[in-house]
């Protein structure tokens, strides 16, 4: 769509994953850690918007903070594959130009979201994977880390737990032995993908998403995060969306773009578009997860069909961070 013709108030929204997130399972100390990390990401991205930077700059900065935080399943602190590796995915989309970039299955790039942006801006492509993506990022001068940087004991214990039960865990499951503790862990589903959407002072929208995928996932598995239109989408005058949840359902339903299409072609308002898409793509098909969304008027809407979602927003009206459903 044509670019905006008005000056608007900048806004940024982020998420750090959705799932079975309750006060009883999280606890006050851990809740405080998550709130502090979300606040740091919001503050970093919004500071750029206040300085006149683009929405793309803001979402990349916010996601970079979350990738550097071991609390989230993206970058440092990402989950392990079945064979004990960490494989990272990320994407960005610029609503002004319609350009997008993504990387998948990378193992050494410190901030995959930066690599995704470089793919968008410095290549003719949208998606690069594995070794090819890493060679490109290295040529671009991006920071690399040894596997030990990404390794956290909590994620390693999750893998051992999942291996013992031949299960695939959906992130943040509490470490512990088999039996009752493991049963609790299986019910403690948290999708740790991180993401951001932003609207800048010129009215431009942007979105970014980053993840480590699923604990004990098959080697080479790629979810919705680096798939434009599934886990990430932005279009000026319409909406910016970043998702988290059961990636296969997001891909089958082209979930992020479905929200945009409802707004663009059916003139639905943002909450209606999000909820109807979640119904058709997730609830009716047995999938779980959620999205953060931001329309051209600066309206933020968080939609999810889980007990909680790490989320927050910041604008001239102030900063707000939420975790639980209500």
UniProtKB/TrEMBL annotation:
Short name of one Pfam family: Asparaginase_2
Coiled coil: none
Annotated residues for binding of substrate: 221-224, 244-247
One GO biological process term: proteolysis
Site positions per UniProt: Cleavage: 192-193
Any one Gene Ontology molecular-function term assigned to this protein's record: peptidase activity
InterPro entries assigned to the protein according to its UniProt record, in alphabetical order: Ntn_hydrolases_N, Peptidase_T2
Keywords assigned: Autocatalytic cleavage, Hydrolase, Protease
Keyword Hydrolase included in the entry's annotation: yes
Active site per UniProt: 193 (nucleophile)
Domain of life: Bacteria
Protein name: Isoaspartyl peptidase
The organism of origin for this protein: Chitinimonas taiwanensis DSM 18899
């Amino acid at each position: 769509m044509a670019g905006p013709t008005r000056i608007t108030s900048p806004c940024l929204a982020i998420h750090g994953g959705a799932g079975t997130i309750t006060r009883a399972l999280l606890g006050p100390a851990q809740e405080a850690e998550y709130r502090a990390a979300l606040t740091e990401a919001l503050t970093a991205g919004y500071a750029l918007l206040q300085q006149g930077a683009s929405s793309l700059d803001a979402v990349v900065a916010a996601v970079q903070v979350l990738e550097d935080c071991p609390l989230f399943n993206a970058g440092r602190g990402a989950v392990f594959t079945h064979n004990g590796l960490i494989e990272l995915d990320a994407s960005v989309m610029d609503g002004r130009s319609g350009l997008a970039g993504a990387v998948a299955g990378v193992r050494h790039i410190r901030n995959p979201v930066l690599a995704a942006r470089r793919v968008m801006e410095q290549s003719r492509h949208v998606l690069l994977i594995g070794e090819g993506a890493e060679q490109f990022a290295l040529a671009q001068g991006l920071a690399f880390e040894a596997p030990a940087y990404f390794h956290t004991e909590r994620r390693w214990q999750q893998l051992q737990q999942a291996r013992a039960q031949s299960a695939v865990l959906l992130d943040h499951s509490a470490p512990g032995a088999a039996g009752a503790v493991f049963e609790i862990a299986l019910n403690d589903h948290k999708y740790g993908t991180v993401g951001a959407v932003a609207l800048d002072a010129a009215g431009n929208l942007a979105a970014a998403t980053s993840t480590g995928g699923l604990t004990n996932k098959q080697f080479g598995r790629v979810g919705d995060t680096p798939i434009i239109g599934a886990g990430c989408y932005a279009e000026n005058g319409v909406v910016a969306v970043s998702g988290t949840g059961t990636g296969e359902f997001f891909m089958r339903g082209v979930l992020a773009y479905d929200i945009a299409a409802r707004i663009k072609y059916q003139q639905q308002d943002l909450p209606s578009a999000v909820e109807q898409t979640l119904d058709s793509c997730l609830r009716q098909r047995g999938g779980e997860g959620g999205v953060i969304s931001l329309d051209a008027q600066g309206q933020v809407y968080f939609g999810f069909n889980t007990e909680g979602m790490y989320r927050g927003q910041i604008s001239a009206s102030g900063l707000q961070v939420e975790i639980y459903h209500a």
